[in-house]
Amino acid sequence: MEQRWSTRSRIALDVDLIFEGTERKGCRTRDIGLGGVFLEINKEAPSKDSMVELTFRLGKGAESAEHKIMAKVVRVSHDGVGLMFRDFDARAFRSLKELIHYTQGNSVH
Questions:
Q1: When comparing pLDDT for 104 and 73, which is higher?
Q2: All domains of the chain, ordered by start, with CATH?
């Protein structure tokens, strides 16, 4: 049984992933919430309990912003990894809220 403290929204976004000194570009989210994300990976995935860094980009062109969030791998499956966000500060929380609102077509105030 999964134990999440926040709900997840089905959102497909391109995300870059850094783990074990390797950057993996073009990973894709399956769902995301304020507590974590499921990331589809079709190549070598990080192992359970490892720490990773995610990079999300919001907007386009000159209006785009990059957000980095640390996460811990809590589940590994044949098609990806479940990640729990870590080191959650106010800036990271705001970035996640912005990301979720942005992808759902809402504006963040």
A1: 73
A2: 8-103 (2.40.10.220)
